[in-house]
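To illustrate the input format used throughout this study, we show a single complete record. The first block contains the structure-token representation of the backbone; no residue identities are included at this stage. The design step must infer an amino acid for every position from geometry alone.
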């Protein structure tokens, strides 16, 4: 009896491939469905959303303190700069010293004056700033960021030019932390073959 049951097992059912004509009919049906959806009237909520104009943005206004200065804070790496600008002859005082004394390298002074060069305001503003933390490179970047934001507070119309040049964006790159088991953030121990 057991042998009879083993021989009477059913063969697996194999699905027939769809003919080309049936596949073409299905694709036509799906195209009809898509066309019907496109022709269907839009819901009232969608129409209302499209009809509403965008809310008007408030125009930016000049922000000055009692002495007629614009203030802003700039940051880069670990450095933080507090910057005040006012119309003047173009002197830049950093932590009580002239920029040529504090930032001895020409590249650092170039970084510092980039916002003025971009908006063609070189020599028109006096800058007084205090900067702490980080090294000279980070401090120069922090002062640049602060000057850019202070210029925006003094003349809001300068914002598009400064934004396009990337002067208003805080550079988020900071030093990566040291990892356990490594010499530095990524420097691993020296590999010894034997």
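Output of the design step:
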């Amino acid at each position: 009896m057991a042998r009879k049951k083993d021989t009477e097992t059913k063969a697996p059912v194999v699905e027939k491939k769809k003919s080309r004509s049936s596949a073409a009919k299905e694709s036509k049906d799906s195209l009809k469905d898509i066309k019907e959806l496109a022709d269907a009237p839009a819901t009232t909520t969608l129409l209302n959303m499209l009809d509403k104009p965008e809310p008007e943005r408030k125009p930016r206004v000049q922000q000055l303190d009692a002495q007629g200065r614009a203030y802003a804070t700039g940051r880069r790496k670990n450095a933080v700069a507090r910057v005040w600008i006012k119309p003047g002859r173009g002197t830049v005082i950093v932590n009580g010293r002239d920029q040529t004394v504090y930032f001895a390298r020409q590249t650092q002074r170039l970084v510092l004056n980039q916002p003025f060069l971009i908006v063609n305001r070189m020599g028109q503003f006096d800058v007084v700033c205090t900067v702490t933390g980080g090294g000279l490179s980070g401090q120069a970047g922090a002062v640049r960021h602060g000057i850019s934001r202070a210029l925006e507070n003094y003349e809001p119309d300068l914002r598009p030019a400064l934004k396009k040049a990337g002067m208003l964006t805080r550079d988020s790159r900071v030093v990566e932390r040291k990892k356990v088991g490594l010499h530095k953030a990524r420097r691993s121990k020296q590999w010894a073959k034997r």
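Structural context for interpreting the output: The chain has a mean pLDDT of 85. Residues 70-165 form a domain with the Ribosomal Protein S5; domain 2 fold (CATH 3.30.230.10).
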